[in-house]
Amino acid sequence: MKKSLRIGGIVATATLATLSLASCGFGGGTASGSDSATSIDLLVPSYSDNTQGLWEGVIDDFEAENSDITVNLEVQSWDNLNDVITTKVAAGKAPDIMNGGPFAGFAADDLLYPIKDVVSADTLADFQDSFVTASSVDGVQYGAPLIASARALFVNEDLLKQAGVAAVPTTWDELLDAATKVAAIGGGVAGYGMPLGSEEAQAESAIWFYGAGGGFGDASEITIDTPENLKGAQFIQTMVDAGATQPDAGATDRSPLMDVFVQGKIGMIIGLPPTVGQIADANPELNYSINPIPTVDGSGFTLGVADHLMAFKNDDKKQEAITKFLDFFYTPDQYVNWVTTEKFLPTTKSGAEQLSGEADLAPFLAALPDAQFYPSTNPNWSATDAAFKSLVGQLAQGKDAQAVLTEIQAKSDAG
Asked: Contact, 412 vs 384, CB < 8 A?
């Protein structure tokens, strides 16, 4: 792998999302055959082609040690997950454990166990402090942090050199100039990969909103319609109008666009820790570097993302079984293998210590201690996230930037 790391104040941002769209119904666990066995349902999204097999391996190992507990697995794509859980909750058929992002709405409706009630004291104490804060509502932790991610600017060094770009951009003006020059190479090459499609519209938006000094708000207030965010939204349009991005940016999802970068056809794109493994597998000769994300003035910002496991209060008779499963999953032998295979970052102290020598993860791990997070503890964040996914792509289709932000804000406020 030809790779250099320009770390500096490595910039982390946005959310992690699906790398594949696998799904299956409940039923990944091996039944014990005992009529007295406790059955718990586990609903998870697919992060990659490895996800289902990883969970099945955890379940097999767990059931081998707990013959009186059966775990039923259901895997959904991230695109489908919100609709699936909404339908299940409305029907009174919530899973016992779910892997997801936003959880504050479920907590507000008193549907979730506080995590301290479904993990041991040792497991609870192993979570990194910053993730505990981001997993809590009014001081009560409802999410068990599962994986963390940081974002950074992945750069095709050969394309920048071919375009005559001497240095990786650190400001928006430099990024626009560099991306325009790379796009001028032609032959289907894009300067900057901008995925504003439904898969991760909120993540790409965060690059520009936070980069302009704005953001999404906090646990008490969602703030989308602000002057800073408008500046970011307008620069998205500047990039698109200048031809600095791939065609049809408003409908492009991150996963297929990242494939194009890995193939060597995009100059710059925002990537995640799994991007390193994806390049190693698909194009190990790609000459790339990992860099801080450019901002309006070159100043750094750090936004971390953590997905969670949450436990629904469906049947108190299952509480002990849920606790046994979560404690088992977070043991280093199970958890670290799961995280490293998915190429994400651990949320536990023991996991971070075990991975401290991994060079490919070093720039991302270095960014996490100061990470900021989506306001997922705000009950309206789920509505906000959905509004970004359905509306923000219009920025690349010529709709007035102020009108787009006003509409997203209204959807967020309505909850």
From this structure: yes
Q: Concatenated DSSP letters for 182-227?
A: HHTT-TT-EEEE---STTSHHHHHHHHHHHTT---B-SS-B--SSH
Kindly report which listed range (12-16, 82-86, 129-133) carries the lowest average pLDDT score.
12-16
Per-residue burial over 35-71, b if 16 or more Cβ lie within 10 Å, else e, is eebbebbbbbbbbbebbbebbbbbbeebbeebeebbb
263 is written with which tokens?
A: 């193939």
| Amino acid occupying residue 361 | L
What is the Rg, in whole angstroms, of the alpha carbon atoms belonging to the chain?
A: 21
Residue 379 is predicted with a pLDDT of: 81
How far apart are the C-alpha atoms of 127 and 343, rounded to whole Å? 19
| Residue that has been written with the tokens 């008490």 in this structure | 220
All residues at 6 or more sequence positions from 277 whose CB lies less than 8 Å from its CB, including other chains: 343, 360
- Cross-strand pairs, 127: 348
Percent of the chain with pLDDT over 90: 70
Q: How far is CA 380 from CA 79, 88, 154, in A?
A: 19, 20, 32
The neighbouring-strand residues paired with 269 are 154, 193
List the structure tokens of 312: 């629904």
Task: Let me know how long the chain is.
Answer: 415
Please give the model's pTM, rounded to 2 decimal places.
Answer: 0.71
Report how far residue 323's alpha carbon sits from residue 338's, in angstroms, rounded to the nearest whole number: 19
pLDDT at 238 over 80: yes
For 382, the enclosing helix (H) or strand (E) is helix 381-391
**pLDDT-based confidence at 151, cuts 50/70/90?**
confident
Closest by CA to 53, choosing from 361, 337, 287, is: 337
pLDDT at 404 over 60: yes
End-to-end Cα separation, the chain, in angstroms: 46
**Three-state DSSP class for residue 22:** coil
Distance between CA 303 and CA 277 in Å, rounded?
21
Q: How many C-alpha atoms does 226 have within 13 Å on its Cβ side? A: 16
Compute the Cα dihedral for 149, 14, 369, 331 and give only its sign: negative
| Cβ(245)–Cβ(238) below 8 Å | no
Distance (Å, rounded) from C-alpha 206 to C-alpha 380?
Answer: 17
pLDDT exceeds cutoff 60 at 39 = yes
Tell me which residue has tokens 């794109």: 269
